[in-house]
Amino acid sequence: MDISQVRRYLIDLQDRIVAGLEAFEPSARFLVDDWQRPTGEHLGGMGRGRVLEGGAVFERAGINFSHVTGQKLPPSASAHRPDLAGGRFEALGVSLVIHPRNPYAPTSHANVRFFVAEKEGVPPVWWFGGGFDLTPFYGFTEDAIHWHTQAHAACAPFGEGVYPRFKQWCDEYFWLKHRSEPRGVGGLFFDDFGADGTVDFETAFALMRSVGDHYLPAYTPIVERRKDTPYGERERDFQCYRRGRYVEFNLVYDRGTLFGLQSGGRTESILMSMPPEVRWRYDWAPEPTPRDWLKA
């Protein structure tokens, strides 16, 4: 296990994604918001915040790296190993959410992360997690097929059973129970990868890197196709309404958001994922659309 190797990869991934998204913008650039927090009774560490707002293509885009340590592992991170609850931990990862301005360009989310947890009397445990998912407001079959083709390619070197398992996990995870509807068209989700000791560090790390490296090839061609599609106030209104579902999921269910808030993390970084403009209406619900996008 080499935490420094994971850290170098994650910082490089953040830089590459920032550069890939900035290439769409005529003038807007990512704000640099680096921070450090002394290790105390709860959470300490550092982070590299990169946030773009008010761009021609991206209304808000945030790509954050953080490397933190804490003295008490919160419930959201120890559900799979209750014997580690309350133990010491170290966590590092890159998390991003992209909200394009054009309603025909989908919101996207990605995260790759690494945890180490230990508690007196229990051997240290490490695991990887992550994935990426797509939330269109006006869906296009070709976009969803492209997205899932890249997701499949990210998993293929690790066995044919990996993509179906992570795809199903994503569909189940990004399901709004109180709405009985999916958040978008899915993608990949995995967590606790390596915690049971059946996968060695090198293989688990390689899988996380593959997921991270496939994000830009999965997302940027879709943005290129949709960013200049004509739209009006009707489409903008619907986009803002559907963004409300995104907020509901992140505040109620998302493990990353809950982990950050429960562990006393940096609020601005945690809530960076929220869209800049959102609307709610009373008692309106779409038809759910889960499907196998590779066979569409």
Described by the principal axes of the CA atoms, the overall outline is globular
Q: Strands across the major sheet, in which order?
A: 1-2-3-4-5-6-9
Secondary structure class reads alpha+beta
Instruction: Give the topology string: H per helix, E per strand.
Output: HEEEHEEEHHEEEHHHHH
The helix tally amounts to 9
Write down the Rg: 19 Å
Strand content: 25-35%
Total number of beta strands: 9
Largest sheet: 7 strands, antiparallel
Low-confidence stretches: none
Overall mean pLDDT: 88
Span between termini: 40 Å
**Helical amount:** 25-40%
SSE blueprint:
Layout: H1 3-22, E1 31-37, E2 43-53, E3 58-70, H2 75-78, E4 88-100, E5 107-119, E6 122-135, H3 141-155, H4 162-173, E7 175-176, E8 181-182, E9 186-193, H5 201-213, H6 215-226, H7 233-252, H8 255-262, H9 267-270
Antiparallel strand pairs: 1-2, 2-3, 3-4, 4-5, 5-6, 6-9, 7-8
Helix pairs in contact: 3-4, 3-6
Polypeptide structure, described:
The protein is an alpha+beta fold and 296 residues long. Helix content is 36%, strand content 28%. The protein contains 9 helices and 9 strands. The strands form 2 sheets. Strands 1-2-3-4-5-6-9 form a 7-stranded antiparallel sheet. The protein has a two-stranded antiparallel sheet with strand order 7-8. Strand 5 (107-119) and strand 6 (122-135) form a beta hairpin. Helix 3 (141-155) crosses helix 4 and helix 3 packs antiparallel against helix 6 (215-226). The radius of gyration is 19 Å and the shape is globular. The N and C termini lie far apart (40 Å). The mean pLDDT is 88.
